[in-house]
Amino acid sequence: MAFGEFDLIDNYFTHRWPQRDDVVLGVGDDGAVLALPQGAELVVATDTMVSGVHFDEQTPARAIAHKVAAVNLSDLAAMGAEPAWLSLALTLPEADQDWLNGFSHGLKEICDYYGCQLIGGDTTKGPLTVTVTAHGFVPAGTALRRDGAKPGDWLFVSGCIGDAGLALAVQQQRTTISDAHYRRVLERLYFPSPRVALGQNLREIASSAIDISDGLVADLKHILKASNVGARVDVDELPLSLAMTESVAADAAIDYALSSGDDYELCFTVPESRRGVFDTVLAHHPAKPICIGRITNEANTLTLLRNDEPWFSQREREGYDHFS
């Protein structure tokens, strides 16, 4: 029996999904109808993953689904938004039912966990490409932005960085590490955890925020440019996992932390006047963010320090750029 586009949608993307009360009309019509909470503003983020660029043929379909949703949810987290709805555009070379089963299960798992509902999208035939648009909301006027950092603000990251880059280096045979540590960092690469709860907790506290998708240096510079400020970062304070510190030399670990993408931790700034509130609100947070430096008045200037001396990365590029 032929397996067509509408069979694909009905079998894998219509049933068994979380159902939200604010979805008036979801999958199955020309468009979705959504009820936005009173007094809220909509936050929208879109990311695309392309076979051969963001993942290879060995990447499990479940991991592809998780990650393409997670990177969008991470963008919402960086804005302090509550996730609500996802739409999916899926381009497939063929209707491989085993692949679709793994993909739809992976997408449903992350939707279940973060309380999102799939509300529609599109399916086409062509080179494997996955695009997700995530929609969320914030109370009006409370969205976190990149342009609010001020001199004197403290600079934080939400957790260990560099692990996804280390996993990719192993995959590309640029380095070798133990099997146990590889499993740990591969999990970070395939199944990142967007810091959604943290982002919402930071709405009334942080002066700016961004998620670390292209590397700490590259993404921090977006804050510096938008806010017209500089930053001083103590590289010895960068949070590194045990897998990282036991696998590579100290300088290499710092380089991975500074320039590797795909960690999807948050980088954010907190004014001195809100440090007490910040410490109180996050006192019981499962993983307390780490302070790595401070914002300065040297516009668009990032200074890396080690033992109070300038430190320079040995890596050629400071973050991922699709067109570099």
Automatic annotation (TrEMBL):
Gene3D superfamilies referenced in this protein's UniProt entry, alphabetically: PurM-like C-terminal domain, PurM-like, N-terminal domain
Positions of the PurM-like C-terminal domain: 150-298
CDD domains with a match to the protein in the record: ThiL
Domain PurM-like N-terminal: 28-138
Keyword Chloroplast: no
EC code: 2.7.4.16
Domain of life: Bacteria
Catalyses which reaction(s): thiamine phosphate + ATP = thiamine diphosphate + ADP
Pfam annotation, one family: AIRS_C
Keywords from the UniProt entry: ATP-binding, Kinase, Magnesium, Metal-binding, Nucleotide-binding, Thiamine biosynthesis, Transferase
Family label: Belongs to the thiamine-monophosphate kinase family.
Protein name, entry field: Thiamine-monophosphate kinase
Organism: Pseudidiomarina piscicola
Upper lineage: Bacteria, Pseudomonadati, Pseudomonadota, Gammaproteobacteria, Alteromonadales
Gene responsible for this protein: thiL
